[in-house]
Amino acid sequence: MSMETDRLNLERMKMGASVKPRELEVTDASFQKDVIDKSKELPVVVDFWAPWCMPCLIIGPILEKLVEEYDGKFLLAKVNVDENRQIALRFNVRSIPSVKMFKDGKLVDEFLGAMPEMMVKQWLDKNL
Predict the structure, then answer these.
(1) pTM
(2) Element (H or E) spanning 3, and its range?
């Protein structure tokens, strides 16, 4: 999680609020439970990324900021494609960053590459 997410969660705990995780790291082994199954309760946005990918380092903080702003309307799942090749292959991730939204256990929309925050918000609003 980002330092900003950690800071916000700490503030919520100080005020007595419960802290629900809005962002999680997902692996090949946990994808079914953390993304597919969870998307039946709440939309899940999956960020397929890698630490060496410069556009990934641009879109990641935007998604982390928006998951907080949207306050529980979706869950952000991050998949490091270098460490989780099977799930990347399963969803035909050939270019990163690749951002995909799952609802009701199904892939409903996606985009490739880094986009400005306003365009990501429009994408979220269209799909949530």
Answers:
(1) 0.84
(2) helix 3-14
Q: Which amino acid is at 66?
A: L
Which one of 35, 53, 81, 124 is the catalytic residue?
A: 53
DSSP state of 114: -
| Angstrom distance (rounded) from CA 8 to CA 2 | 10
Q: Domains in the chain: how many in total?
A: 1
Per the structure, the complete domain to which residue 46 belongs is given by: 3-10+19-127
The model's pLDDT over 46-62, given as tens digits with 9 standing for 90+, comes to: 999 999 999 999 999 99
Active site residue 56: yes
Cβ contacts of 28 within 8 Å, gap of 6 or more? 84, 85, 86, 87
